[in-house]
TrEMBL record:
Keywords: DNA-binding. GO terms for biological process: negative regulation of DNA-templated transcription. InterPro entries: Homeodomain-like_sf, HTH-type_TetR-like_transc_reg, HTH_TetR, Tet_transcr_reg_TetR-rel_C_sf, Tscrpt_reg_YcdC_C. Residues 37-56 bind DNA. This is TetR family transcriptional regulator. GO terms for molecular function: DNA-binding transcription factor activity; transcription cis-regulatory region binding. Residues 14-74 form the HTH tetR-type domain. It comes from the Bacteria. The keyword DNA-binding applies. It comes from Pseudaestuariivita atlantica.
Length: 203
């Protein structure tokens, strides 16, 4: 029986990778990919630059690792939207979860938005092979609900993109939201977004 030559990372190595990725998420979400440097990541992580390069091949490697880990998390609420006796509740559950993710994961939202704004140079394949089939599947599901008269007449594709635009605004423009309405306005935001989409979708 051949020996297992793949050496598993130690607890310390796993911990350091996590520290580096968390620090890099801060740096990338603040400065963008082009503005971020390994020196900034090392400083935020409290590790030396050679130590960073022991675990990752460079800035691009760290960025790709973060994006790959993020995509599955980002798509999970859409995956969970399935056929149901109450399509309106299913869509509103998705809206609420996306809103919560914007409040809980603003750094991740800005990382993803920054990548897409730059033309998705590191995620184009993932968007094509991962997001597009899922998006088409959920559009078809929503269209069946529309055709059956279970929700109002809407464009499924533009409905989903509108949900993204509205909910992710609270993360991507967090600083502006804080200036305009303050940081304690989540209940008001939730009520407004809920009323807006329920009004749009109710037959």
């Amino acid at each position: 029986m051949p020996a297992d030559t793949a050496k598993k990372p130690s607890r310390i190595q796993l911990k350091n990778r996590g520290i580096i990725l968390d620090a890099a998420l801060d740096v990338f979400s603040t400065h963008g990919f082009r503005g971020a440097t390994l020196d900034q990541i090392a400083e935020a992580a409290g590790l030396s630059k050679p130590n960073i390069l022991y675990y990752f091949g460079g800035k691009d490697d760290i960025h790709r690792t973060l994006l790959n880990a993020l995509l599955d998390v980002w798509l999970a609420p859409l995956v969970e939207m399935t056929d149901t006796d109450d399509p309106l509740d299913a869509i509103m559950d998705y809206v609420h979860r996306k809103l919560e993710m914007s409040w809980e994961m603003p750094r991740e939202s800005r990382l993803f938005a920054g990548e897409v704004i730059r033309g998705a140079p590191r995620m184009a394949t993932d968007l094509e092979t991962g997001l597009k089939p899922l998006f088409d599947e959920k559009c078809a599901l929503i269209q069946r609900w529309v055709d059956d008269g279970r929700i109002a007449q809407v464009s499924p594709a533009h409905l989903i993109m509108s949900i993204w635009a509205v909910t992710q605004h609270y993360a991507d423009f967090e600083a502006q939201v804080g200036v305009l309405v303050g940081s304690g306005s989540q209940d008001d935001a939730r009520a407004h977004v809920d009323a807006m989409f329920r009004s749009l979708l109710t037959p």
